[in-house]
Amino acid sequence: MRPAFPALFSAVLALSLLAGCRPDQIEHIENGKQIATTLENMAVKRILPADFLRATRWAGDSLTGQADRELRRLLAEQLQAGGVAAALPYCRPESYASTDSLALVLLATPGRLSSRPRNPQNQAPLSATELRPDTTRLIKRLTADVFEYQRPILLSDAQCLRCHGEVGKDIAAADYVLIKKQYPQDQAVGYKLGDAMGVWRVSFARNGIAEFYTMKTRKVMKPRKPLF
Fold first, then answer.
1. Does residue 110 lie within any of the structural domains?
2. Total tally of structural domains belonging to the chain
């Protein structure tokens, strides 16, 4: 049997070197954590099928949520300024410049559909499941490169009743004449608060969803608090 002295000597030598290395002798890299985070963010991430579906929901919520907020803001301004006549042209949030700008970034094609549309171009047969009065999302992968997001459009703002409520009760007779003049085939009336009026349906290109997922999951360094 060979003596274990060389191995024992090596272990003792390593421990001696470590013990002799004081904390004040270790040179720390400035902004080391930030550099490590930056390198991690730059690494190519593998995106799994479930991640693509999750990112489709995130992207859909972001796009349609922004459009709905802008719709409420503009309708409030226009109704106060000039009533239904002024507000009517603004009830198309899918065509807003802000919506279009975000859609370009996400490689998205947004649309709003209804079984009872104001504009017949937005006519679509929708099932009872699609028109449930809740926030149910339907997420699909249509092809290898196309994802689809869908959620109900709910009448959750009382000001919308001035154009979409009951004629003679919520909608003034003169305003309904104006609506019918602009939209002769209008069916988008008779709704109550909480009703599902239709759906947002948005298609996304795979590259747009991949980029959004990468951005959404990127680590962000918290700013350091000053010591003094």
1. yes
2. 1
User: Average pLDDT for residues 176-197, to the nearest whole number?
Assistant: 95
* 86 part of a folded domain: yes
Instruction: List all residues 6 or more positions away from 162 whose beta carbon is below 8 Å from its beta carbon.
Output: 79, 84, 87, 170, 171, 172, 175
Range of the domain at 163: 49-216
Backbone φ, ψ for residue 179 (5° rounding): -60, -45
- What residues does 201 pair with on adjacent strands? 111, 150
Average pLDDT score over residue span 32-43: 49
For residues 119 and 130, the answer to whether their CB atoms sit within 8 Å is: no
The residue behind tokens 């249509």 is 142
Question: In whole angstroms, what is the distance from residue 34 CA to residue 2 CA?
Answer: 50
pTM above 0.90, yes or no: no
Task: Tell me whether residue 8 is in a domain.
Answer: no
Phi-psi region of 74 (alpha: psi -120 to 50; beta: other; left: phi over 0): alpha
